[in-house]
Amino acid sequence: MNKFIVSGTPHVRSKDSIQGIMRDVLIALTPAALMGIYVFGLNALVIMVISIASAIFFEFLYQKLMKKPVTITDLSAAVTGLLLAMNMPSGAPYWMPIVGSAFAIIIAKQLFGGLGQNFINPALAARAFLLASYPTAMTTWPAASHAVVDTASSASQAVDAVTVATPLALLKAGSITTVTSSDMINAFVGTVGGCIGETSAIALIIGGIYLIVRHVISWRIPVIYIATVFVLTAAIGRNGVRVPHYEILVGGLMLGAFFMATDYASSPVTPKGQIIMALGCGLLTTLIRIFGGYPEGVSYSILIMNLCVPLIDRFTEPKIFGAPEVKKA
Amino acid sequence: MQALTFKRGVHPPDGKALSAEQPIKVILPKENSELFFPMSQHIGAPCEPLVAVGDYVKVGQKIAESPAFMSSPIFSSISGEVVDIRPMLVPGGNMVKSIVIKNDAKMVEAEGLNQAHDYTTMSNEEILACIKDAGVVGLGGAGFPTHVKLNPPKDQPIDYILINAAECEPYLTCDYRIMLEESERVVRGLQVMLKLHPNAKGVIGIEMNKPKAIEAMTKACEGISNITVQPLVTKFPQGSEKHLIYSITKREVKSGALPASAGCIVDNVDTVVAIERALFKGRPLMRRIVTVTGGAVKNPGNYKIRIGMTFRDIIEAIGGFKEENPPAKLIAGGPMMGPTLYTLDVATVKTSSGLLCFTAEEAFIPEERNCIRCAKCVDHCPMGLMPFMLNQFAIRGDGENFVKHHGLDCIECGSCSYECPAKRQLAQSIRATKKIEAGKKAAAAAKARAEAEAAKAKNS
Predict the structure, then answer these.
(1) How confident is residue A148, by pLDDT bands cut at 50, 70 and 90?
(2) Mutate which of B340, B373, B429 to test chain A, going by most A C-beta atoms within 10 A?
């Protein structure tokens, strides 16, 4: 007699998979990664390759040692590795992405239960760890090549064109009083100082739109996050300068808003919660940038909001369909 | 007309092309084959047999009933001898006491059959009695006795009678064929229902992926002022009672309440046809349309069967399975909500709408991975629940939190499991925990009742 499979409903499943989602994220990061190589040279590529390879290796190693099923084919470790590299300066020593990947994969991800269980973004946690441990190496910015338009700030540094200050540091120091259209173009294209993957706003926006169109992420976190920073920097200003249109293009905001704050495991699942997360990130980023000790606040603001996610989810549970109306006391 | 819908939901591939254009074919049980009539084919009190082993029964003869109001009688769909009364497997996996009748293939009809009624001159009570005496229950799947549904409490006036023709389950096409081939009957049946609730509007809700059905029904309703056809967005679970009501009327049926509380009565297309047959033809419920489909079936199509045939009888009558691609999974109903069968020797009942035979490839169950909190289940749950969280409570056996986070409101539509990229068994685990918690709730209620009665007895 034939044997038939007996199982619970439903009997059909969508074609979506974790691997497919992670592949989409990698595709979405490609334009920004290519711009990173174009702007910062082959060294950027080397850092990215080392970071991705070591992230995959540490995931494999941990799962082998712990006798767990090896899940490196789901590509999530590759995403973490690439994001970490994109959050590092291209001049970082080659051992640094290895240490960072080990921290991201083993400490931030696997020790808390692996995929989906990490309460903070692994790549950002590793970046914060590296920034605290090796502050000089993590904040030495090799100059960008191929500047579309030479500007006053890039020209003044051209004398000593090995390292540069990032636009955010210049804003903080008050060296920028007006933003010219050349500054805007450089920030938009990505020919400014900064981490490998954060400088090209246009490439990151293209990748972000791809993720939204593919339903991998919702528009809520990136759009509201960027809008909040725009509104707050316009309202507060710094050193009497109000250049919100420039502020949102420079630093890690685009990378953070589209790719880091939207990390599934460490962002809220409810629509309302995602809005709160985005508002919180925007507020903290602006406060750190303007009043804090660091020029950039994207990483820390996302990490702080990551910690609030369980609380946010708890208080933003959606109203169920057909819920009895709450009687007024 | 603007197509209406509800919030969230999913879009599984509909698989209807296999059988949609196959006209309804009548298949009759073979001579000497045994038909099974389970005593419980509806929600409510099970029936008791009115016949004994050795009796000769005729087509349309009432063979079982219950004195309870919330029940529905059962009729023989063939003529022949009662050879046994024993437990038989029904879809869903239960063994139910069943009358076994051996078909003599003579189709001798019972006396008093085929007496048409003129419903326009009948009182509401007479119409309801006629529907009850024809054994009509909700044929969409739940099997709620229709005479009970059509007679809601007096303090709940009915504003809408909605005909559920969404047929949102993939693969099933029986309702579609009924609308194309028996559209006048659907309209006449609905008119009977509207006679009972003269202030109500009749609305036939059909998904947009069935334009021919919309056309046919619109034509059949022409000139009837209180019946309209409403196109609906093609989306699962559009045919869920609560979601159909919301789509058409924008009213929400409150948690735990019945549609009548929102002024609505919802009945499936085939149920309406059963009402029409009871009134206009004087025939009780003995046949139904079943979609037999799936990659393993040689001749997928829509078949008018005699209720009581086994799925094996049906498969044999329609040419069997493909030799090169045998079935690996049998599903009674659609792929989103239909229970699986472990054998073909299962009796069809009033609510059997389909038999889906999946090949090994179609039946593939992907490996479960970690939840990545992508929130797709939250974004698609038509009830607004958080399935990934309920899944965690289910795994931990945390019934208290499961109930607190509305686990019992889950309609088990399977949208969460369908969407999940980690292929987690969300709906499956929620269903299991629902059973446990609903059982606990019922036990607690029973205990409270018993204690209250004991206290009363003590005091008196």
Answers:
(1) low
(2) B373
User: Of B92, B43, B88, whose CA–CA distance to B338 is shortest?
Assistant: B92
Mean pLDDT for the stretch of residues A179-201: 88
Closest CA to B222 of B176, B266, B187, B182: B187
Q: For residues A58 and A81, what is the distance between their CA atoms, to the nearest angstrom? A: 10
Answer yes or no: are the C-beta atoms of B62 and B25 closer than 8 Å. Answer: no
Task: Tally the residues of chain B.
Answer: 460
Q: Which helix (H) or strand (E) holds B63?
A: strand B62-65
Is residue A198 one of the residues assigned to a domain?
A: yes
Q: Do B255 and A5 touch (CB under 8 A)?
A: no
Paired with B358 in beta bridges are: B329
CA distance A50 to A161: 26
Convert the pLDDT of each residue in B4-14 to its tens digit: 898 899 999 98
**Same domain as A201, residue A132:** no
Q: CA of B100: how far to CAs of B87, B95, B247, B346, in Å? A: 10, 14, 43, 13
Cβ separation of B421 and A16 shorter than 8 Å? yes
Instruction: Give which of B378, B420, B337 is closest to B167, Cα–Cα.
Output: B337
Q: Which fold has domain B16-20+134-281?
A: Rossmann fold (3.40.50)
pLDDT tens digit string along A77-134? 999 999 999 999 998 999 999 999 999 999 999 999 999 999 999 999 999 999 999 9
